Amino acid sequence: MIKIHNVKAIITMPLVILGVTLLTTGACLGSASRTSSLDEVARELKTPKALEKFMRNNFTYVEDRFLLDVDEYWQGAQEMLVRRQGDCEDYAVFTKAILERMGYRVFLLSLYSGADAHTVTVFEKNGRVGVFDLDKLLTPRSDSLGRIASEVNSRWDSLGIMRQSGNIGLISRKFLKKSFRNISLMSVFEYLTRSTLRPVL
Predict the structure, then answer these.
(1) Nearest-5° angle of CA 148, CA 153, CA 156?
(2) What does the pLDDT read at residue 194?
(3) Residue 198 — φ and ψ, nearest 5°?
(4) Are 120 and 88 in contact (CB under 8 A)?
(5) What is the SS3 assignment for the chain?
(6) Would you call 67 exposed, middle or buried from its count of C-beta atoms within 10 A (0-12, 13-18, 19+)?
(7) Half-sphere CA count of 7, side-chain side, radius 13 A
(8) What is the CA angle 127-128-132, rounded to 5?
(9) How far, in whole angstroms, is CA 137 from its chain's centroid?
(10) CA-based R_g, the chain, Å
(11) Which CATH class is domain 35-194?
C-alpha cells in the first residue's frame, strides 16, 4: 500500500511545472509572443529580413470569409499579431505598422485586376526600396510605382494607395494603367507627406 504524505504537494507539482514551462516558453518567444505589443515586436525583430522570417514562422493566410465569415474585414495590426491569421491586407497592415516603428517610410498599395484585388506594403529608407507581398520580402528592380506593381502582378489594370478606416480599406489615390505615367516612389512619399488623405495606420 502506497502512503501519500502530502497530497497537496503532489497535486500542485504538475501545475508548478506547467507554469514554469509556460513562463519559459513566453520568455523564449520574447516580443514575438501573442500578448506582445507592436513596439516590442519591432524592437526584437529590428530588420525587414527578420520580420519576413517571423511572419513565415507564425502567420497563416486565411481568407476573411473562412476566418470571420465576412466578405471583407481589415484587421488592425495588433489584432493580426494576436490572431496570426488573415489575408493580404492584414499582412500588409501588420508589416506597415512594424516597418514604421523601425523607421521606414511605408504605404499600402492595392493592385486591381478585373474583380480581384491584392494589397502589398511598399517601404523605403535611405533610398533602399522594398516590398512585402504577404510574408515575402521582395527587392524591386525599379523605384517607379508602375514597374514595382508589375513585378508583383503584371496583369494589374489600376492601383490604389490605401488607408485603413476602422475595418475597411479606402483608396487615397487611384491610378489607371491605361492613363498611367510612371512616377517614382519618392513622388508618392512626397504626396503622402503633403496630403491630408495620407494613410495613418
Answers:
(1) 95
(2) 75
(3) -60, 145
(4) yes
(5) CCCCCCHHHHHHHHHHHHHHHHHHHHHHHHHHCCCCCHHHHHHHHCCHHHHHHHHHHHCEECCHHHHCCCCCCCCCHHHHHHHCEECHHHHHHHHHHHHHHCCCEEEEEEEEECCEEEEEEEEEECCEEEEEECCEEECCCCCEHHHHHHHHCCCCCEEEEEEEECCEEEEEEEEEHHHCCCCEHHHHHHHHHHCCCCCCC
(6) middle
(7) 1
(8) 135
(9) 11
(10) 22
(11) alpha beta
Model pLDDT, residue 6? 47
- What φ, ψ does residue 160 adopt, rounded to 5°? -130, 125
Nearest-angstrom CA–CA distance, 63 and 67: 6
Question: What's the pLDDT at 24?
Answer: 32
Q: Where are the domains of the chain?
A: 35-194
Q: What's the pLDDT score for residue 195?
A: 61
- What stretches in the chain show pLDDT beneath 50? 1-31, 196-201
Nearest residue to 84 via CA among 35, 28, 140, 145: 35
Distance CA 133, CA 121 (A): 7
Predicted TM-score of the model (pTM): 0.79
Residue pair 94/71 in contact (Cβ under 8 Å)? The answer is: no
143 and 129 in contact (C-beta within 8 Å)? Answer: yes
Distance in angstroms (rounded) separating the CA atoms of residues 40 and 56: 18
Measure the N-to-C terminal CA separation of the chain; round to a whole number of Å.
66
